[in-house]
Amino acid sequence: xxLGRLNHVGVATPSIEASVETYRNLLGATAxxxxxxxxxxGVRVCFVDAPNTQVELIQPLDEASPIAGFLKxxxxxxxxxxxxxxxxxxxxxxxxxAKGARVLGAPRIGAHGTPIVFVHPRDFGGLLIELMETxxxxxx
Amino acid sequence: xxLGRLNHVGVATPSIEASVETYRNLLGATAxxxxxxxxxxGVRVCFVDAPNTQVELIQPLDEASPIAGFLKxxxxxxxxxxxxxxxxxxxxxxxxxAKGARVLGAPRIGAHGTPIVFVHPRDFGGLLIELMETxxxxxx
Lengths: 140, 140
Hints:
Domain VOC (chains A, B): 5-134
Keywords (chains A, B): Isomerase, Metal-binding
CATH topology of chain A: 2,3-Dihydroxybiphenyl 1,2-Dioxygenase, domain 1
Enzyme class (chains A, B): isomerase
Largest interface: A-B, 48 and 48 residues
Pfam families (chains A, B): Glyoxalase_4
Radius of gyration of chain A: 15 Å
Oligomer: homodimer
GO molecular function (chains A, B): methylmalonyl-CoA epimerase activity
CATH architecture of chain A: Roll
């Protein structure tokens, strides 16, 4: 495995609408996607484009959402995860498991429509790392 | 101001050496800079290159370092800040101040040799945002 591009930084927020306004007003973000729900993951997400990567704003859909737990500790929101691209999710998972890292669950389809997995923060210096298979159409 | 490229993600760590090994071993990072001290900011830093951006590993130089405080709350380390590039730091600061955002101190020279400032997390959804003037030689 070779370190791939940072597809996005995941940012937890109690309000996508308020966060979008902050990125627009304070930093001049203009390329902002439509928010959409990922019910399987209990979240609503919205991508804000920087020229070289994206910020994924993540709002809990309900109290059972892992993001709801995050916001209990940090009510204003904050950085939640880093997502790096990999060419093949199954190769990446096998590699990580062989090295003793804890991969959280089986690959599932993520916000960009390609398979993703998360690596346990205890195996990555306190950071929650998402690995995402690069979309074949080159979009991100 | 228009949202600029994400120059780097700042990551606090109790040990740059251990973090570098994690990025190398688990994610296959190969482009890893030499660690260096920023004594004015009380930190030692090391940049790990992804194809489109960088991870800035930040280790406290002493107990007075703001990163030491961060690690008291999150001993394993974690995401610390997001750094976006701006063409002119003074224009960016004037714009933010005019919009009522709290800019932390005057611009100072950052890890890439160009002026930086930080924006208060309370004005940015719990995220610590660094703004950094784009290096004129195009390096990053």
